[in-house]
Specification:
alpha/beta; 341 residues; 2 domains; 4-stranded parallel sheet; Rossmann fold
């Protein structure tokens, strides 16, 4: 912490358990899924669903999965890369800035990070959710929590938020450059796999209530109707990366992973896409996951293990994963640009 800092930057990632144990994973999942922006149903129903059904079943399973990706020295991959991003951004910004890292769920909490910043009497605080595409359940929840915590402050520095950076040129170039480490001609098809959302959450971003989304959503809202449509922002990211790679729309598919529950989520689902491609004789897949700026359980296990095994059982041969942005200097440059506004 620099005594001369007058400006603050708060980076906020989703979160990770403190340890890969069932009790710690249970705490993490409960806090995460009880957020009304994540499971947007009335409190009583949400409580019964989360605490009575989802968490008791998933906590032991998720703990076992976390143990497979947990490093004995560095711990959670998500935390490891997030700390690196914080420290590297601090180096880039210099002594005038103070950079804090928080997790929306679990530790370090948004409240604890802001408590440190409150005592510094900063002139300004810039909040950067580490989610390129806006969704109420991610960036919206971060912004909501920051405002809730700061409500009790007796003074208010200039406060600003980064809503999204889904088609930032340098970010998309970083993803593309990571993709160019592979021989693109070797692969039969490319997937851009994003974290999914219930379809009902897409239309909720329209305060007029006039935006009605079809069952699978659409890919044009960002252009035609609503700049805050998560689905359309995912397509915008994919188009930008594909353009930099020089690949056509026929060479890639946008799909959505991590579905939870039986209500309709935005489609196509990644699992269904694997089935469709395998049925067409596709053998080798290259996968980008541009909703995640750090490698985490969704990239290291869900794609590289779960989906890879599923694809091979369907007759496929290979699923290769493009690494996330992690500590890439060009990505740190993007964070610096976002921090400077």
């Amino acid at each position: 912490m620099s005594k001369s800092a007058t400006k603050g930057v708060l980076l906020v990632q989703l979160g990770t358990p403190d340890a890969p144990t069932t009790p710690d994973v249970r705490k993490y999942l409960t806090e995460f899924l009880m957020d009304p922006r994540v499971i947007d149903i009335p409190y009583l129903g949400r409580t019964l669903l989360v605490k009575g059904v989802i968490v008791p079943k998933r906590a032991p399973q998720s703990a076992a999965t976390y143990r497979t990706i947990w490093d004995k020295e560095t711990g959670s991959p998500l935390m490891y890369y997030s700390v690196l991003q914080r420290d590297l951004l601090q180096e880039e910004l210099g002594a005038e800035y103070h950079v804090e890292l928080a997790m929306r769920y679990q530790n370090p909490s948004i409240a604890s990070a802001l408590k440190k910043m409150e005592g510094m009497m900063l002139d300004s605080i810039r909040v950067i959710p580490l989610f390129p595409q806006y969704a109420s359940a991610t960036s919206g929840s971060v912004i909501d929590k920051v405002m809730e915590v700061m409500r009790s402050w007796q003074y208010f520095p200039q406060l600003s938020f980064v809503s999204n950076y889904c088609d930032d040129e340098e970010m998309c170039e970083t993803f593309a450059r990571h993709g160019r480490k592979f021989d693109l001609d070797y692969y039969d098809h490319i997937l851009f796999s994003y974290h999914g959302l219930p379809v009902r959450q897409l239309g909720k971003v329209d305060p007029t209530g006039q935006l009605s989304c079809p069952d699978a959503g659409c890919d044009r809202c960002k252009v035609e109707k609503n700049n805050f449509c998560y689905l359309s922002q995912c397509y915008a990211t994919s188009r930008a990366i594909a353009a930099k790679l020089g690949i056509s729309e026929e060479q890639y598919t946008v799909c959505f992973q991590s579905r939870l529950g039986k209500t309709p989520w935005i489609q196509p689902y990644t699992s269904d896409t694997l089935h469709d491609l395998a049925a067409k004789g596709v053998k080798k897949l290259l996968v980008f996951s541009p909703a995640f700026v750090s490698d985490c359980i969704e990239t290291l296990d869900e794609i590289q293990v779960e989906y890879a095994n599923e694809f091979k059982e369907l007759g496929g041969e290979e699923v290769a994963m493009v690494e996330s942005l992690n500590d890439d200097p060009q990505w740190i440059g993007v964070l610096k640009k976002l921090a400077l506004g």
